[in-house]
Amino acid sequence: MTSLRADKAKVQPIFILSCERSGSTLLRLIVDTHSEIACPGQLYLGSMSNELYRTMNYSLGQTFDATKEIERKELVLQEVRGIIDGLMERYSAARNKSIWCEKTTLNTDYLKILSDLFPEARYICLYRNCMDVVHSCLKFNPLGFMPELVQFVQRYPENLVVAMAENWLAKNEKIFTFETTHPDQCFRVHYEHMVNDPLTVLPPLFEFLGVDWEECILQKVFSVQHDQGEGDLKVHFSRRISGDSIGKGKSIPLATIPGGLKERLDKVNDWLDYPSLESFYQDNCKDILSIESHSEKYSHAKQIEPDEFFKIKVREIIREKGGKVDMLRGMCRFVVDGKGGGSWVIDLSESVAEIREARDEDQADCTIAITYGAFLNLINDTASVEEVYERGEVTSFGSEPIALQFGKLLFG
């Protein structure tokens, strides 16, 4: 884990390795806030590199003058490296930065090709407590599982806790194995330490990455513009780095983990410096508060109803945010489901905003659908976007980037 101070003549890329729901989007935003590092949303460079190598090997690679297969392989790698590096260097330069970083979680399946292509790359190995990851996966996917998790759900449909735990095992065993075989290129980060004590964790991390620590990063991470892309959307609504989700895995009964799986999990827990499952459940220093139902939360608040919100409050928000609204162009349909709900349109396609009830013929760029209770939570400030999102009470269709911008406009 030695420092690899950046050589300006030849800057090596950075990869964030993690299991899903381990905080990689938060870490991506932190890294991207640095003045020298560009870290976009998930680009799937691992799978892209793998397919490019296959294509190159069986096309142009067959024409290379190589007496040995190992020579042909290196020539093919050079071609693929040139394509990937050229793309990412152009992107970094467009952002006035000199180093690029990639965070796709599925890159754990392509570590061999990535290390062959970039033998001197640096890797951030991000880990999070198993049961907290399981809890987050189950909360994040109430209406359907993200593609990365589907294979595990198919294998263990009778016990989704086991499915999510097996996913955690598979990903983190790969990352740990890579970390132990490439110790000088890897820097270990625990999610819990990162969110609870960022000033202790982050300066050494950036030193390892070869750049100076910038004091302003923690103040700017949620206010500077980051490029849109796949990842944890709710992070874009955060206002601070928080450890509030730590320990929530204790709400899952330990009895849902079979004995054999528990042993395998504890083996990896020990590798990663996490407590055993029994110790995790016995540690009551961070009690898990049950989440109030949305009806309990908004019943005590002075309520603003959806119709009043769209007819009056939205115009006030647009006036207050001025310049930020000028950069947003498009039409969004808001659908509030349930008694008291309805459908409204915010049209910012022209210079003058139009806010009205939706019509069947409206061609919106995106639709945001939310339950009546969750909507009251948000407009009455009795729940955060993160909470209603994890409860599965809000979803979107159409253009995800535009939906995200409208969501941040109203509730960010």
Characterise this structure.
With 412 residues, the protein is an alpha/beta fold. It folds into 2 domains: 14-237, P-loop containing nucleotide triphosphate hydrolases (Rossmann fold); 295-411, Nonspecific Lipid-transfer Protein, Chain A (2-Layer Sandwich). The protein has 18 helices and 10 strands. The protein has helices at 24-33, 45-57, 69-94, 111-117, 130-140, 147-155, 160-181, 191-196, 198-208, 217-220, 259-271, 277-282, 294-299, 306-321, 323-326, 372-379, 385-390, 400-411; strands at residues 14-17, 37-38, 99-102, 122-127, 186-190, 331-337, 342-347, 354-357, 366-371, 394-398. The strands form 2 sheets. It has a 5-stranded parallel sheet, with helices on both faces. A hairpin with a 6-residue loop joins strand 7 and strand 8. Residues 2-9 and 285-302 have low confidence and may be disordered. Pfam families: SCP2, Sulfotransfer_3. It comes from Methyloprofundus sedimenti. Residues 320-396 form the SCP2 domain. InterPro entries: P-loop_NTPase, SCP2_sterol-bd_dom, SCP2_sterol-bd_dom_sf, TPST-like.
Keywords:
five-stranded parallel β-sheet, Rossmann fold, 2 domains, Nonspecific Lipid-transfer Protein, Chain A, single chain, 18 helices, 412 residues, alpha/beta, disordered N terminus, 10 strands, 46% helix
Most strands sheet: 5 strands, parallel
State the helicity in percent bands: 40-55%
Which parts are unreliable, with pLDDT below 50 for 5 consecutive residues or more? 2-9, 285-302
- CATH fold annotation of the largest domain: Rossmann fold
| Secondary-structure element series | EHEHHEHEHHHEHHHHHHHHEEEEHHEH
The whole-angstrom Rg is 23 Å
Strand order of the largest sheet: 2-3-1-4-5
> How many beta strands in the DSSP annotation?
10
What structural class do you assign from the helix and strand content? alpha/beta
Count of discrete alpha- or pi-helical segments spanning 4 or more residues: 18
- Judging by the overall fold, what is the CATH architecture of the largest domain? 3-Layer(aba) Sandwich
CATH homolog superfamily of the largest domain = P-loop containing nucleotide triphosphate hydrolases
Instruction: Give the DSSP E fraction (strand runs of 2 or more residues).
Output: 5-15%
Span between termini: 38 Å
CATH class of the largest domain: Alpha Beta
Mean pLDDT: 86
